[in-house]
Design goal:
This protein has a single domain, classed as TIM Barrel. It is of the alpha/beta class and 322 residues long. A seven-stranded parallel beta sheet has the order 3-4-5-6-7-8-9. Helix content is 41%, strand content 11%. The protein contains 13 helices and nine strands. The two termini are 16 Å apart. Bound molecules: 2-(acetylamino)-2-deoxy-D-mannose and pyruvic acid. The site of 2-(acetylamino)-2-deoxy-D-mannose (MN9) has 16 residues, from helix 13. Its EC number is 4.1.3.3. Keywords: Carbohydrate metabolism, Cytoplasm, Lyase, Schiff base.
Length: 322
């Protein structure tokens, strides 16, 4: 589940929450007045965080994500969509990201996972954003074109992390080339420096980004640097970008800083609970909101942040406790 708010700075009901695996949107009708408009794309959509793959997660949990042969068990995706919608209240999905272990899948597996989510989510989910980042620009472009072809609602890209971009311009040029391969899809930059090792501040990257990437729609910010995050929000007030926060344990703080949504792994199983936190935040009941947030902190920080985001472990060790 993730939370994301499309409209910048608006009340929470105008925010869109995206959970990691799930994108979850509250109170914003698809195509509603507050939804960000995709640039160059057909139709209106609510800002999407990325969805992490339920498939990869399930694999770690022994829940059937991968069959014993090591193949992905695509057949669980349909049921998983129903679970997210009905039991967690999550209707937006970020596919093939960190939780989905997109970087550990082959290109054909990534395409197939994306197809399954789009097919199974049709008429049930609001938004499906596909993470298409890769070390190879060509592969990333291929995945972006594929996402457009199957009717995804957006694409997201991390920084290449082996031969790394050494400055902002190099990174932007990479992102631009990927975005150009799917010119009708809203584009998100997925900032996750602890895993990519690319430490270029998001605030620096966003400066003038739309001149280079006209489809730029927002940022998925998976870092604990709330100063950087706050500056991103503050310096782009006119842009109607989506600011999707990706450290679930800090979501409440990020909401205060102006997050418009969230994308996170824990929303797969804490969707309902997080919705309660969002509701409390919306009605300015911060004490109650805080009561919902620490539950995650207690169980997750040591496992996840403390171990530099060794996510699947943290997610599933926690899931066993809830
Ligand atoms: C590294 C990673 O996967 N981060 C996720 C989002 O980006 C988060 O949702 C974390 O899994 C979550 O905050 C638990 O630590
Ligand atoms: C959590 C998240 O955003 C991801 O799995 O990519």
């Amino acid at each position: 589940m993730f939370i994301q708010a499309p409209a910048f700075g608006g009340p929470l009901k105008n925010r869109e929450l995206h959970l990691c695996l799930t994108l979850w949107e509250r109170g914003v009708a698809r195509g509603g007045a507050t939804a960000p408009r995709p640039r160059g794309g057909a139709g209106t959509w609510c800002a999407a965080p990325a969805i992490k793959s339920a498939v990869g997660s399930a694999a770690r949990s022994g829940g059937g994500g991968r069959a014993a042969s090591g193949e992905i068990n695509f057949s669980v995706i349909g049921r998983y969509v129903d679970y997210l919608v009905e039991e967690q209240g999550v209707k937006n999905i970020f596919v093939n990201g960190t939780t989905g272990e997109g970087l550990s899948l082959s290109i054909s597996e990534r395409c197939r996972v994306a197809e399954e989510w789009v097919t199974e989510g049709r008429n049930k989910l609001d938004q499906i954003v596909i993470h298409v980042g890769a070390l190879s620009l060509k592969e990333s472009q291929e995945l972006a074109q594929h996402a457009a072809k199957i009717g995804a609602d957006g694409i997201a890209v991390i920084a290449p992390f082996f031969l790394k971009p050494w400055n902002k311009d190099v990174l932007i040029n990479f992102l631009k080339e990927v975005a150009a391969a799917a010119p009708a899809l809203p584009f998100y930059y997925y900032h996750i420096p602890a895993l990519t090792g690319v430490k270029i501040r998001a605030e620096e990257l966003l400066d003038g980004i739309q001149d280079k990437i006209p489809t730029f729609q927002g940022l998925k910010f998976s870092d604990t640097d709330l100063l950087d995050f706050g500056q991103c929000v503050d310096q782009n007030r006119q842009q109607q970008f989506a600011f999707l926060f990706g450290v679930d344990e800090q979501l409440l703080s990020a909401l205060v800083m102006g997050a418009t949504g969230a994308v996170g792994s824990t929303y797969n199983y804490l969707g309902k609970k997080t919705n309660q936190m969002l509701e409390a935040f919306e009605r300015k009941d911060f004490s109650s909101a805080l009561n919902h947030q620490p539950t995650q902190i207690n169980h997750l920080t040591q496992n996840s942040i403390g171990k530099q985001f060794s996510l699947p472990h943290s997610v599933f060790s926690y899931r066993k406790q809830v």
